[in-house]
Amino acid sequence: MSKPVLQLWINGQRTNSRSTRLADVTNPATGEAIRQVPLASRADVEAAISSAKMAFPGWRDTTPLRRSRILNKFRELLETHRAELAQLASEEHGKTLEDAAGSVQRGIEVVEFAVGAPHLLKGEHAENVGRGVDCHSMLQPIGVCAGITPFNFPAMVPMWMFPIAIACGNTFILKPSEKVPSCSLRMAELLKEAGLPDGVFNVVPGDKEAVDTLLTHPDVRSISFVGSTPIAKNIYETAAHHGKRVQALGGAKNHAVVLPDAELDFTADAIMGAAYGSAGERCMAISTVVAVGDVADALVAKLKARAEKLVVGPGDKKGVDMGPVISAQHRDKIVGYIDSGVTQGAKLLIDGRGIKVAGHEKGFFVGPTLFDNVTTAMTIYQEEIFGPVLIVLRVATFDEAINMVNSNQYANGTAIFTASGAAARRFQNEIEVGMVGINVPIPVPMAFFSFGGWKSSLFGDLHMHGMEGVYFYTRTKAITTRWPEVAERSASTLTMPTLG
Ligand code: NAD
Fold first, then answer.
1. pTM here?
2. How far apart are CA 271 and CA 258, in angstroms?
3. Contact, 162 vs 188, CB < 8 A?
4. Could you list the pLDDT tens digit for every one of the 500 residues in the chain?
5. What is the rounded CA–CA span in Å between residue 395 and residue 485?
6. Best of 231, 246, 337, 385 to mutate for ligand 1, by most ligand atoms within 8 A of CB?
7. CA of 227 to the centre of ligand 1 (A)
8. What residue's CA is closest to ligand 1, atom 9?
9. Nearest alpha-carbon partner for 272 in 238, 245, 310, 301
10. Residues facing residue 9 across a β-bridge
11. Which terminus of the chain, N or C, has fewer Cβ atoms within 10 Å?
């Protein structure tokens, strides 16, 4: 039976794609295609860019207060439609409904931040920078901005980007993951209902063809990307080569360092949610535990006891802790990593391969998996698995643990579990990672702080949301002003002007 086919969102309306290429959108819990999505062609994306370019002057000249009121109305609509968005995210991604609702909430918080645009866009002013001379700065929008987002947060990651871009007076083109397009298209409708003028926000689901058009088109001024490291690096290099401002967030391998003085039940509970929530498909998931000194045996026993109790099933069923992973291909990749861990000599304590979920035999499930005695030479340590696989490495000292985290190519998030303020203080000071938790397993900063990793986890200079988001989506202009009295006018001079 033919499946419903989604459309693009261009110039404030649903628009048929000119592309003949369609992709299945699959419910990972059943393994069945539930709808199809057009993969936007170059011509589709050019139409979206043209619409965003036309809308820009009017939106730029709309006062920040009016822009903010529209976003505030959008925020209200998001609250009203939170369950619907969570259902769409859960259906296309596989995560539990509760987890999906939590991620929609984190997106709403970015809209709450963006509603402060009139305050956020205030520049600086200094009187008498020279005799009779004042200076002020303004934050102005940059034009047509684009966002390219991953499959794992269908609503939240797009909301890291477009609310702030729009609040700052830009127009926006979103290229969501072709695996989870529905939340983005629904949010476009809600923005229109909130009063957003046509063309300010456009959605073009697609693949490389759509992305390449955005990266190379002269009318696109900035690219925000979230996804895997190899693609992030390529996006950064290509878009920068074409003169665009870029922030490209990549993959992760987040370590939790557990010191012998940590409260172990609290720590094990915290690590459970961080490792297996969303089936490990979070860029801030804890995938690696570094057990320091003699803590390892007791900690591993507690992790094992808890992980064995996790209930795996479809995300919309009550009582389920962990849903499926995104696709059959991704499930097979994760299983391949588990195979390699066994082959390379790690100790497999819980094996998630071959799990069967009654009534969902075609779903893409991997059960919680736990490895002990992993070493840094093993593939399961070196690469991002992005699944429900937690590995434990044992080290003798805190120095070794810090050195291990700092030697890893990824540097998105990390956490330390300890009762020692001195150890925590040393960790926050010396650790070379963008986001750090102290007895907090997933230290995702609130919307009024910025989100971003270091090293291979982020290419570019500015992080997402918070004031860094505002600076990313604006250009600073500095204006120096003098209103000379006639008597003060001096003769022209060819020397370098100095004030004072
Ligand atoms: P991905 O890199 O495969 O895809 C991300 C986006 O890029 C999608 O929109 C996709 O359509 C597009 N894309 C894929 N291949 C492309 C290509 N060759 N050329 C141009 N565009 C292409 O990532 P994913 O599988 O959707 O998401 C999982 C990854 O995202 C993980 O590595 C995870 O760590 C990362 N992630 C990072 C963060 C962060 O904040 N650092 C947040 C969420 C996810």
1. 0.97
2. 10
3. no
4. 789 999 999 999 999 999 999 999 999 999 999 999 999 999 999 999 999 999 999 999 999 999 999 999 999 999 999 999 999 999 999 999 999 999 999 999 999 999 999 999 999 999 999 999 999 999 999 999 999 999 999 999 999 999 999 999 999 999 999 999 999 999 999 999 999 999 999 999 999 999 999 999 999 999 999 999 999 999 999 999 999 999 999 999 999 999 999 999 999 999 999 999 999 999 999 999 999 999 999 999 999 999 999 999 999 999 999 999 999 999 999 999 999 999 999 999 999 999 999 999 999 999 999 999 999 999 999 999 999 999 999 999 999 999 999 999 999 999 999 999 999 999 999 999 999 999 999 999 999 999 999 999 999 999 999 999 999 999 999 999 999 886 666 667 788 877 66
5. 73
6. 231
7. 3
8. 177
9. 310
10. 14, 203
11. N
Interval between CA 409 and ligand 1 midpoint (Å): 17
For atom 43 of ligand 1, which residue has the closest CA?
A: 283
Pair of tokens at residue 163: 């609310």
Name the catalytic one among 145, 168, 183, 283.
283
The DSSP string of 253-297 is -EEEEE-TTS-HHHHHHHHHHHHHGGGG--TT-EEEEEEEGGGHH
Chain Cα centroid distance, residue 217: 24
Q: Look-up: residue for tokens 């389920």?
A: 320
Which of 92, 152, 287, 456, when mutated, tests ligand 1's pocket best, judged by the most ligand atoms within 8 Å of its CB? 152
d(CA 41, CA 111): 30
Q: What is the DSSP letter of 424?
A: H
Known active-site residue 283: yes
Largest CA distance in the chain: 91
CA-proximal residue: ligand 1, atom 16 (nearest): 208
Per DSSP bridges, beta strands 286-292 and 254-258 are parallel
Alpha helices by DSSP H, listed for 360-465, are 379-382, 398-407, 421-430
Ligand 1 proximal residues by C-beta, below 6 Å: 148-152, 157, 175, 177-178, 207-208, 211, 226-228, 231, 249-252, 283, 384, 386, 412, 453, 457
Q: Which atom of ligand 1 is nearest to the CA of 153?
A: 43
Distance 247 CA to ligand 1 centre (A): 13
* C-alpha R_g of the chain: 25
Which residue has the least CA distance to atom 21 on ligand 1?
Answer: 208
Q: Give 150 Cα–ligand 1 centroid separation in angstroms.
A: 4
Pairing of strands 458-460, 245-249: antiparallel
From the CA of 176, give the closest atom in ligand 1: 9
